[in-house]
Amino acid sequence: MEISFKGKTALVTGAGKGIGRTIAAELLKCGADVIALSRTQADLDSLKEEYPSMRTLCVDLSDWEKSRDAVTQLGQIDLLVNNAAIAICEPATDAKPEDFDAMMNINVKALLNVSQVIAKGLVEKGLPGSIVNISSQASMAALDGHVIYAATKGAIDSATRVMALEFGAKGIRVNSVNPTVITTAMSLVGWSDPAKKAWMTERIPLGRFGDPLEVAYPVLFLLSDKASMINGVCLPIDGGFTAC
Ligand code: NAP
């Protein structure tokens, strides 16, 4: 099975680092015209150096109007990966309101904002599309210190199902993937402590954390026509963690 995105334009949010960067690179290799969106120009500059044909957009998704304008100006986007997110870990008793607002704003509100712009553009032209939201196993299982982050990812799973219903009727599929710990800068926030790492890896039947490519490949499949009847799923990529 080969996947080709020739003739398709893809937007990946949070593509400066980690999983988003890997997804953007793999989409490019499969022939898509890729726009990498992130908020740190230096990350986008290094992407451009590595992949000269990749287009980049520097915008902070926490600003609803600015990011909406910037994404609208991109024109038609066929494939969208809502990947940008932040993680702040703190115990439920001490979780701060400002952290709730910041995580909800980027992880959930910005996802809705970008999805609205892309879906409306496709619907106006009567074109099909595919959206993949990067959720987390934190939406499916209780993880110590993840109270707000988990709530944002639960919101993403719910939004995925509603968008799958509403956009699906217009030919736009919407799915999410729910990875376990993947080795990136973000995972250092919650999982660099050796005791925590051991606790988690012991509960993953495959016995290890994941690699960004192990998220990118299922995302590319869900974006592609090979997944043409898959809509509204939240797919664990967790080595079996949530099966146990
Ligand atoms: P990461 O290494 O921290 O990368 C996140 C990217 O998103 C960065 O380029 C970041 O830019 C960008 N970003 C954050 N806030 C933004 C904003 N307001 N506007 C524009 N860009 C913004 O994270 P990751 O580990 O690759 O995670 C990617 C996705 O996978 C997230 O949705 C995360 O919740 C999910 N996930 C990760 C894991 C894991 O273990 N890593 C597990 C499950 C799910 P800056 O660096 O400039 O802020």
Architecture overview:
The chain has 244 residues and is α/β, with parallel strands linked by helices. Helix content is 45%, strand content 15%. The protein is built from 8 helices and 7 strands; from the N terminus they run βαβαβαβαβαβαααβ. It has a 7-stranded parallel sheet with strand order 3-2-1-4-5-6-7, sandwiched between helices. α1 (18-29) crosses α8. The longest helix has 29 residues, at 97-125. The chain is globular and about 50 Å long. The chain starts with 8 loop residues before the first strand and ends in a 7-residue tail after the last strand. The model has no long low-confidence stretch (mean pLDDT 97). The structure holds NADP nicotinamide-adenine-dinucleotide phosphate. NADP nicotinamide-adenine-dinucleotide phosphate binds at residues 14, 16-20, 38-40, 43, 60-62, 83-87, 106, 134, 136, 179, 181-182, 184-187. NADP nicotinamide-adenine-dinucleotide phosphate (NAP) binds at residues 14, 16-20, 38-40, 43, 60-62, 83-87, 106, 134, 136, 179, 181-182, 184-187.
